Amino acid sequence: MQKRIVRKIDTEDKAYAFALKKLSYKDYSEQAMLTLLAKEQCPSAVQQAVLAKLKEYSFLNDEVYAARVYRAWLNKKYYGKKHLLLELKKKEVSEACTAEVLAEYDDELDYNRACNALTAWQKQYNKQEDPLSDKLLAKAIRALFSRGFNNNSIQKALRRLEQKIVD
């Protein structure tokens, strides 16, 4: 196993070049960029100067980054609001930007995504004799909770499934 070589970045030019190199591979939030610079033993004053310069040239913008994370997350069809919240926290998006993104996400979208997830889950277990058995419903509820859906959306999706089966 190779050991990670820690460079000490002590000038603003080196830190800026390092940040641009990292941003050429993928986007980062402001906090994540500060973490990267700190790992390279960059002084705090240099970190702040580089961050200000990156913001000035619009290379680093938490609002745009949060919107990109949200759009990418929307392509994952079978996850709920709590999963989105964890994804934004993992990417170190600021609380204000997280609140803005979560405001766009409504209960109707959560319900539709829960129905899609339940339908996909049901395809795996459609060979069961009684699709409304307590054991199978408990499995479905656990599966939806683990994907980040709230209780209300899960209950609505299960009612919709029961209506489809009864009809």
TrEMBL record:
GO terms for cellular component: cytoplasm. Gene3D superfamilies: Winged helix-like DNA-binding domain superfamily/Winged helix DNA-binding domain (1.10.10.10). Keywords: Cytoplasm. It comes from the Bacteria. It is found in: Cytoplasm. GO terms for biological process: regulation of DNA repair. Modulates RecA activity. Belongs to the RecX family. This is Regulatory protein RecX. It comes from Candidatus Avacidaminococcus intestinavium. The gene is recX.
